[in-house]
Specification:
This protein has about 375 residues and is of the alpha+beta class. It has ten helices and 17 strands. The two termini are about 30 Å apart.
Length: about 375
């Protein structure tokens, strides 16, 4: 399989999250490729849920290894859906996040099938990861008995010299401030909901600093963080706002809990202001001495010809659902930059090396299972 050509084909589909016609066309393209090499393919698409494609070499829900990823992308200009290669780099929307690595997963499936490896192997690709992964959650709820000993997660960062062993817990919180309307010229007749929100935000910021205002990266990034994703308040310019709402994006390390976050928020509330936890998950923390992770690392170092470091990642991963089921999650991707930006690219050599690492690891797993 020519991974780079397949990647370019995938990138030409405008599979922005929610663009179901393009997503369906892309999934049909993947299904055709995989069916031709003998894979068993189902597209899980319940009403109102963005589809998930489920590819495997055997009809089973118990896998030795499974690759997890997604094929949706964030919005971009038309030109970004016309992939370009320059100086060993592939540019365009989805190059790094993560159609190149979806192609790597398809290549791994073809490898397992053509080499008849004695593994139960699968690939799950969702189509709404950029907006909450409801499809993955629905799929796993439907397939409650699905288990994988090892999950290969390529949707992490963008540096092939690093294996991620920790990801934070994303917790989204909605804060609501209720005020009282009045004419803008007579603020003493009303209660400004925006002012109430500002006061609460200032209190929260004492507990969760605004690192973006410091102007440089902190020495220790493995800390709880917060950014205010949305703040909306007011109707028109000359009316005191009677309602303000803020959506907060907290990222908690494994040393913090949602209950601890609630206690901190409780301290910050004032009359007229309340909050609710919109969603929360769990952090993903892997044992760096796990035998499977060390074996993968050893193979990767042999193929790359240099050492690989373990690192932590502040972003979330869909693999947390498998970590909760007891899977060993190996988080490793190729190298690139510009994720979600206009200059998104992936280094072609890193994509090909990642594919080589995966197939070598799967071969090693099969050999160990056969003994």
């Amino acid at each position: 399989m020519n991974i780079i050509e397949i990647t370019q084909d995938l990138m030409r589909f405008r599979s922005e999250t929610g663009n179901i016609p393009q997503i369906n066309q892309l999934l049909s393209y993947i299904k055709n490729i995989m069916t031709l090499v003998g894979a068993k393919v189902d597209i899980f698409a319940p009403k109102g849920i963005s589809p998930v494609i489920f590819i495997r070499n055997k009809n089973t829900l118990n896998f030795d290894a499974l690759i997890l990823g997604h094929i949706d992308v964030v919005p971009a200009e038309d030109k970004m859906f016309c992939p370009k290669i320059k100086s060993g780099k592939l540019y365009g929307r989805g190059a790094l996040d993560m159609k190149s690595f979806a192609s790597v997963a398809l290549n791994s499936m073809q490898y397992v099938l053509t080499h008849n490896l004695p593994l139960n192997f699968g690939v799950i690709l969702s189509s709404d990861e950029e907006q909450g992964s409801k499809g993955t959650l629905a799929f796993l709820k439907k397939h409650a008995k699905l288990h994988a000993d090892i999950v290969l997660d390529n949707d992490v960062g963008g540096d092939i010299t690093k294996i991620i062993t920790k990801c934070k817990n994303p917790v989204f919180v909605k804060i609501k401030a209720i005020g009282q309307e009045a004419h803008g010229s007579r603020p003493w007749d009303g209660i400004d909901a925006n002012d109430l929100m500002f006061e609460v935000i200032s209190k929260i910021r004492l507990l969760y600093p605004a690192y973006s205002l410091v102007g440089k990266k902190p020495r220790n990034t493995w800390v709880d963080t917060l950014h205010f994703a949305k703040i909306n308040g007011g109707k028109v310019s000359n009316i005191i706002s009677d309602y303000c709402e803020a959506l907060c994006d907290f990222r908690l390390t494994e040393n913090s809990t949602v209950e601890g976050l609630k206690k901190n928020l409780d301290k910050c509330m004032i009359k007229g202001v309340s909050y609710e936890i919109v969603s929360s998950s769990i952090p993903v923390v892997m044992n760096e001495k796990d035998s499977s992770i060390l074996e993968y690392k050893k193979l990767a170092e042999q193929i790359l010809g240099h050492k690989i470091k373990f690192e932590y990642e502040g972003g979330a991963t869909d693999a947390r659902e498998f970590a909760a089921r007891g899977s060993v999650v190996i988080m490793h991707s190729g190298t690139g930059d510009g994720m979600h930006a206009s200059g998104e690219y992936v280094e072609i050599d890193s994509v090909e090396k990642l594919a080589e690492i995966q197939t070598a690891f799967l071969s090693k797993l099969a050999l160990a299972k056969n003994k």
